[in-house]
């Protein structure tokens, strides 16, 4: 079993390699020359399962109204009755999975909350990937409105895509470049790319720094009120 320090090192290394992957994948052809170096530097751990294919057990469609919270209980009953999950110990034998259907409704609410709180602020401008105005400007599609949000899957994809764009935006900030073309042209070695990724981790993915900034914000609010 690895020590806490070893796990921390592996997590930091994995995070750095994740940033590198995003540079190469979403930076289009600008960073592809570092692909070989990245593949050779991927972290390795003995804690992995053998390559295998998961066996799927298909069932008939169930007539369940997904628009109400009652569906959570209906899904749990259907799983219990049709798949005989938990019969070994009675209904309580499936308690580890009964709460899972509720996650779907929770995710719907969470996704709407993300758009309301983080993406619905009009003063974010068109340069912040975390705002609706950014996507409405750059996607050249039908406008996304808080009063009429697209389907859940589209909202989810936009949130995750914005995270990838945030990483590239952070790359421009730490490299002090205005465009990805300028940034890519200034990076001559993979070691330089590693330094920039480390800078992103320290400045924008540092839990201690976030906690300190939140504390400062709370202190300033309390002082004003």
TrEMBL record:
Domain DUF6589: 89-220
InterPro entries given in the database record: DUF6589 (IPR046496)
Record-linked Pfam families: DUF6589
Domain of life (superkingdom): Eukaryota
Name of this chain's protein: DUF6589 domain-containing protein
């Amino acid at each position: 079993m690895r020590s806490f320090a070893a796990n921390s090192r592996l997590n930091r290394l994995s995070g750095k390699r994740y940033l590198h992957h995003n540079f190469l994948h979403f930076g289009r052809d600008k960073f592809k020359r570092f692909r070989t170096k990245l593949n050779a530097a991927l972290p390795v751990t003995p804690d992995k399962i053998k390559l295998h294919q998961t066996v799927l057990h298909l069932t008939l469609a169930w007539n369940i109204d997904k628009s109400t919270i009652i569906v959570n209980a209906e899904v749990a009953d259907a799983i219990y009755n049709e798949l005989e999950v938990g019969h070994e110990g009675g209904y309580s034998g499936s308690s580890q999975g009964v709460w899972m259907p509720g996650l779907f409704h929770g995710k719907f609410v969470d996704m709407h909350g993300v758009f309301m709180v983080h993406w619905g602020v009009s003063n974010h401008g068109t340069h912040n990937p975390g705002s609706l105005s950014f996507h409405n400007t750059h996607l050249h599609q039908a406008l996304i409105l808080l009063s009429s949000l697209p389907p859940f899957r589209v909202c989810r994809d936009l949130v995750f895509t914005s995270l990838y764009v945030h990483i590239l935006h952070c790359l421009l900030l730490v490299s002090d470049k205005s465009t990805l073309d300028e940034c890519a042209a200034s990076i001559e070695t993979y070691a330089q790319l590693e330094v920039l990724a480390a800078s992103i981790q320290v400045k924008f993915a540092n839990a201690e720094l976030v906690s300190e900034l939140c504390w400062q914000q709370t202190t300033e609010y309390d002082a004003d009120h």
